[in-house]
Amino acid sequence: MNGNWYIAAFAVVCSALSVMFDAILFFLAFIIWLFILFKKKRLGKFPITLSLVVYLTFLLYIPPIDSLKPDTDRSDVTFSGKIIRYPVKTETMLQFDFKDDDTKDTMRVMLFNLDRQNPTIATIQSGASCQIHGDLNILESSSNPGQFDYQAYLASNGIHYEIVINSIEDISCHGSDRLNVLYTMRENIKEYIYSKFSEETGAWILALVLGDDSLISKDITELFQRWSLSHLLAISGLHIGLVVGLLYFFTVKLQLLTIEKAQYLMMIFLPIYAFLAGGAPSVLRASSMVLLVLFLRKVKRKLMITDVISIVFIMLIIFDKYIIYHIGFQFSFLVTFAIILSKKWLLSSDSLLFQMLKLSFISQLVILPIQMNYFYNFNPLSILLNVFVVPYFTFFVIPLMFLLLLISPISFLHVFMDKLFSFVHEIFLRLLQGVDTNLFYPWWNGQFPTSYIVIYYTLLIFMLAMILRDKLTRAFAYGTLLTMLLVSLMLRPYLSPYGSVTMLDIGQGDAIVIELPFRKGVFIVDAGAAISFESMEATNRNYTRVIKPFLQYQGIYEINAIIISHEDTDHAGSVKYIVDDYRVNTIMISEYYQLEEELIHKQTQGEILRVKAGQVVEIKGKMFNILAPGVDKKGSNENSLVFSISLGGRDWLFTGDIDKETEKEIIKTFPDLSVDVLKVAHHGSSTSTYPMFISAIKPNYALISVGKNNRYGHPTRDVLETLHKEQALVLRTDQAGAIIYRYSENDGTFYQFKP
């Protein structure tokens, strides 16, 4: 297998993809690839047979992340088992992973409102045997397209259950394991950094030396994410190379140790540092590769670098079968493998600038489909920005972080260097924020379909192969096809004859997104926000967790109109956040809507359109027939904007939170009103959905946006009985998650996001 370990690694990749996507496509691609290699006499029967065995073995070994879900919640249950990872303790929260002795299941234990002074906290350590009394909860899966799936995230770490405890007294622990010594050492180093350095510098030392970026501000982490710079906030192979270089300098160059003894020291120290650095996949990869190379030298064996990375890849998955789902693992191995294969091309230029540009180009292209699947966007300018930012971190920031830690006992020196770093880094961050403000033009695309992924990587491999062979004309041709593939991905919504109406599940509130066929227009009807129980003010939780991810998932970057039914937070609270992030051409409200000064100030790029009953408003070829309010009723619910619109061959009625009196007035003023789909008013409250109103409009479908187990008892039994009596099919977000109507010109179909 010397020189052919990449075949086995590729077999594992195909197994993982087959499990992740539940698709035979990757197996067929693998078989075709093996057949081509066999026909070209580049592989014999034994490596091919072994590769097939590896594929089948890992197909059974790698778990699908939707397995082992609990059936029901259970309250007041006592569990016995061990803590398997070091607990995370903040000022207000305790979190750790726990393995139950009876079921052998791994559970995430959560305690909020933590009392840090309680002596019981000191007994909660890695490897401790514990009894825990709490509630076993079913992990909530995402209920909207594009929403972060917490259930899938924990399942990808082998965790399928969550225990919520009410008090620290509900935990009784004793003992610990040997790893707890290293965990304690890590915590002591963190405390030392807190005490020695300024808050800003300490945060960057923690991130770049110990792999803990929790103290770096959310704005900075989001900024780095937008520009595909997140890899710089995580410990990577660069850090391991720096650690190895420092060890080599302080031992061999200063003649403290022989080369052989220095290598033994590295073999001891690297696993310890990898653990102290948080055990990120990129650290494990780089450390394992160095250790494997050192071991091979000791036994006088030599392997190609592609064999080394392939063996490490397989070993790490054997050690942790869930690591394949970790985005850092995927990025680290993809980028490293691509750099190894492109080494000749990268070094073909004498210019360091061109080498960095090539490196950035390769790194960005090879992870692009995965990045789009996770973040739904790609910023082409990030390739160029990486050329300048990566050297800044490589030659200044990262080495300085290690140096600051080493010189920290020398007070005057580390204080001076701390101030120097803070000054320089502040300038860098301001420049980066300026670039972000003026040059951030991402491609929003939604998900990268599986078929596109296969075609993309096939074209990329052929393009790089032609570059390495100096066949630049062919490389350009493959690059052109690759570009056309990406452009077609961006253009899909504009070429699709299908539109959609999506009632998002934001809990007790309304948020509905209408997309016209061929992306001729995008409308949002209401965008509710959740209320903070502490401040009793609107928060951005619904926007950041549901609305914005959905818009990104759909590749939406411009909104033609937001129609706000009334002022209540559960209908209008997220509008200000949308206006901040997106171009909104029109905000449509009733004549009696009390518009906030903040929203007037924000809506400078588009118009604010006030309407009243009897008007017909045309936006992007769609007619909005305004049915209410006709007069000021001195109440926000009663003054809700009501309109009808035709979508996909059906007549829709959007009703906000109107009451029964308004419903009576509507059917009196518009006796011929025909409705196929009704957005049920006021989340199914008994104040609305008057039986005579439903009997008059005779809807075939009734959509109710309502929070699960809400305290209001919505939708009420009377409302449901009224709708059922008129034989309307009721669809509820608390049961179905997002409700999606996908339509063509004259017809459409309803879908529920939750099965």
Automatic annotation (TrEMBL):
Database matches in InterPro entries: ComA-like_MBL (IPR035681), ComEC_N (IPR004477), Competence_ComEC/Rec2 (IPR004797), Competence_DNA_uptake (IPR052159), DUF4131 (IPR025405), Metallo-B-lactamas (IPR001279), RibonucZ/Hydroxyglut_hydro (IPR036866)
Keyword Cell membrane: yes
Gene3D superfamilies: Ribonuclease Z/Hydroxyacylglutathione hydrolase-like (3.60.15.10)
Pfam families: Competence, DUF4131, Lactamase_B
Domain annotation Metallo-beta-lactamase: ranges: 508-708
CDD domains: ComA-like_MBL-fold
Transmembrane segments: 6-36, 43-62, 229-250, 270-296, 303-319, 353-372, 392-415, 450-468, 475-495
Keyword set includes Lyase: no
Keywords: Cell membrane, Membrane, Transmembrane, Transmembrane helix
Subcellular locations according to the entry: Cell membrane
Membrane disposition: Multi-pass membrane protein
PANTHER family: DNA INTERNALIZATION/COMPETENCE PROTEIN COMEC/REC2 (PTHR30619), RECOMBINATION PROTEIN 2 (PTHR30619:SF1)
NCBIfam families reported in the protein's UniProt record: ComEC_N-term, ComEC_Rec2
Record-given protein name: DNA internalization-related competence protein ComEC/Rec2
Source species of the chain: Ornithinibacillus massiliensis
